[in-house]
Automatic annotation (TrEMBL):
It catalyses: a ubiquinone + NADH + 5 H(+)(in) = a ubiquinol + NAD(+) + 4 H(+)(out). PANTHER family: NADH-UBIQUINONE OXIDOREDUCTASE CHAIN 4 (PTHR43507:SF20). Core subunit of the mitochondrial membrane respiratory chain NADH dehydrogenase (Complex I) which catalyzes electron transfer from NADH through the respiratory chain, using ubiquinone as an electron acceptor. Essential for the catalytic activity and assembly of complex I. The chain crosses the membrane at residues 47-72, 84-103, 109-130, 137-160, 180-200, 212-237, 249-267, 274-295, 301-323, 330-351, 381-403, 423-443. The keyword Oxidoreductase does not apply. Residues 106-388 form the NADH:quinone oxidoreductase/Mrp antiporter transmembrane domain. This is NADH-ubiquinone oxidoreductase chain 4.
């Protein structure tokens, strides 16, 4: 509760060096939130707020990525004096809304913060986006998510009317009879699948990523996609959706969509678009692991949300650094960066192998757990798994080789330079991916 009041106080303050204060607040509180990783299995309650191991992982990710958003935007916003205080206010507001969503036990407030998180995101895209197409991207984002979320609101109201409560624990521990058709329950889950996003409902994601500023891309890939995964886990566990007749269909759509988006990534020429489509494949695999109902699938899905949030955010940071140097995101105009900056080339290589799930990063652990759960569910899915692993390696190698190898272009040789803040930004993405390999056993107490 003190953390929430501190966030509200920082939102209302008007002092000098407010940008730096907000940045250090989020970075310091990300370390304070590490203590919640060791909470008891039943979690901690404080009025309407509830935090357990699942919530604590995503709260930690939210604080960390929000702080890195401000660090990544320092050059484009702070140095250029581009509505600096308003930008930091929007980032802090979005961080607070997302954290409240992860900690809510009331279904109505759960839905409220799920929807309110859209507004600061759209303001980031419209206020600090690069091109006029950002208006269409913001419209796509609003229409897709709001349209899919309305059935969720109706379902929550129907559940509360039948059972006289909005609290999730009333359904989780008392096993109250819902007396609702499975169609309504499936429609409620649809809101989280679109936010994930489910393949065939994913068109808003590449548009929003391409037109968003670096902070918008980081929060979309790092945090907002995790709202859908978190909602799926909470609803499947709270309402005991263990015998859904449509879970096989959703699993096939997610996994086959992951294969198709992996092939789409191979043919992409825009760096940000390639990274955005790779997110759809990773989140589809995560959803498939959840619907297997195996414990290793749930643990792998939770770990995938954390590792993908850092890895995808780091890739967007690297692509933005490249864009600031040569004013282009085309793979055809990049090449020979290995001859110009070997240190940044190493960072690109580590992020690419992390994205493909190679050691020594925790992405490998999450993918192994998901592959085990999918194989236990059906041995036929092994074919889809092998295709996804192979094509995932292909498009990550294409991304790395296209940027780093070949002849360097003469038009950016004299202007390409890095500074210590860029190195720090990439290292702060890589550091948790390596350190969390030391202990991933706390996930066994999630459920």
């Amino acid at each position: 509760m003190g953390m929430i009041f501190s966030l509200i106080l920082l939102l209302l303050m008007k002092v000098n060096n407010l940008w730096e204060m907000r940045f250090w607040f989020m970075m310091i509180f990300s370390f304070f939130s590490l203590k919640y990783l060791s909470v008891e299995e039943w979690g901690l309650y404080n009025y309407y707020l509830y935090i357990d191991i699942l919530s604590s992982i995503l709260v930690l990710l939210s604080f960390w990525v929000s702080g890195l958003m401000m660090l990544a935007s320092y050059r484009s916003v702070k140095e250029n004096n581009n509505k600096t205080m308003f930008f930091s206010f929007i980032v802090l507001l979005l961080c607070m809304v997302i954290i409240l969503f992860f900690m809510m036990t009331s279904l109505l407030l759960f839905y409220l913060f799920f929807e309110v998180s859209l507004l600061p995101t759209v303001m980031l895209i419209l206020g600090w986006g690069y091109q006029p197409e950002r208006l269409r991207a913001g419209l796509y984002l609003m229409l897709y998510t709001v349209f899919a979320s309305l059935p969720l609101l109706l379902g929550i109201l129907m559940i509360s009317e039948k059972n006289g409560s909005y609290m999730m624990d009333m359904f989780k521990y008392n096993k109250i009879n819902l007396n609702m058709s499975m169609i309504w329950l499936s429609v409620m889950l649809f809101a989280f699948l679109v936010k994930l996003p489910l393949y065939s409902m994913h068109l808003w994601l590449p548009k929003a990523h391409v037109e968003a500023p670096i902070a918008g891309s980081m929060v979309l890939a790092g945090i907002l996609l995790k709202l859908g995964g978190y909602g799926l886990i909470r609803f499947l566990y709270t309402f005991s959706f263990m015998n859904l007749y449509f879970d096989e269909l959703i699993m096939v759509i997610c996994l086959w969509g992951g294969v198709l988006t992996s092939f789409i990534c191979v043919g992409q020429s825009d760096i940000k678009s390639l990274i955005a489509y790779s997110s759809i494949g990773h989140m589809g695999m995560m959803a498939g692991g959840l619907f297997t109902k195996f414990m290793c699938g749930w643990e792998g899905g939770i770990l995938m949300m954390f590792s993908h949030g850092l890895c995808s955010s780091g890739l967007f940071c690297l692509s933005n650094m490249l864009y600031e140097k040569i004013n282009s995101r085309s793979l055809f105009l990049c090449g020979g960066m290995l001859n110009i900056s070997s240190t940044m080339s190493l960072f690109w290589f580590m992020m690419c192998i992390s994205n493909m799930g190679a050691p020594p990063f925790i992405n490998m652990v999450s993918e192994v757990l998901l592959f085990i759960s999918l194989y236990l569910y059906s041995q036929i899915l092994l074919i889809i798994i092998l295709i996804m692993v192979f094509v995932g390696g292909v498009y990550n190698l294409v991304l790395y080789v296209s940027i780093q190898c070949g002849n360097d272009m003469s038009f950016y040789n004299v202007i390409y330079s890095e500074n210590s803040s860029e190195y720090l930004l990439v290292l702060l993405h890589l550091f948790p991916l390596l350190v969390f390999m030391l202990n991933v056993g706390y996930l066994s107490g999630v459920m």
